[in-house]
């Protein structure tokens, strides 16, 4: 499971010209699930995301979480995060999780963020052709990959 977390001043996602999700100060998260990903990994990713301290405190140090600043999240499903570009010039998506299962993990991840206390979590339309707009703050961009965490823990 992969997530790209961008600290934003604002972000929105549109489908067919209509805004379907947005957030103000907080995170825009691109989320991708791959074969073998589990509900437990989605829950871990949500916990790590909600506790991530990339907002500045009164001393201008990144020391505050999204919960501390009462920030908002726009979570966007994006299977292209699972692109394999090792061979040739055309990405392969063979490792991406089957869409029905990926959507379940995506929705579970979003629900976990809400249950952890994130003020607002908007979602994209799973599988749709989307237009994303954001104002990156910093810019601050963090990549989370649950495979790396699993390998670090000997799994």
Question: What can you see in these coordinates?
Answer:
This protein is α/β, with parallel strands linked by helices. The chain has a single domain (2-147), classed as 3-Layer(bba) Sandwich (D-tyrosyl-trna(Tyr) Deacylase, Chain: A), CATH 3.50.80. The protein is built from three helices and eight strands. The chain has helices at 39-51, 99-115, 146-152, and strands at 2-15, 18-23, 26-32, 53-56, 62-65, 72-77, 120-123, 130-145. The strands form two sheets. Strands 1, 2, 3, 6, 7 and 8 form a six-stranded mixed sheet that branches. Strands 4-5 form a two-stranded antiparallel ribbon. The protein is globular, with a radius of gyration of 15 Å. The two termini are 15 Å apart. The model has no long low-confidence stretch (mean pLDDT 94).
Give a topology summary.
Elements: E1 2-15, E2 18-23, E3 26-32, H1 39-51, E4 53-56, E5 62-65, E6 72-77, H2 99-115, E7 120-123, E8 130-145, H3 146-152
How far do the termini sit from each other? 15 Å
Mean pLDDT: 94
The largest sheet is:
6 strands, mixed
- Give the class from helix and strand content and strand pairing: alpha/beta
Please give the CATH class: Alpha Beta
**Which overall shape is indicated by the principal axes computed on the Cα atoms?**
globular
Number of strands: 8
**In oligomeric terms, what are we looking at?**
single chain
Using only C-alpha atoms, the radius of gyration works out to 15 Å
Q: What percent of residues adopt helix (DSSP H or I)? A: 10-25%
CATH topology type: D-tyrosyl-trna(Tyr) Deacylase, Chain: A
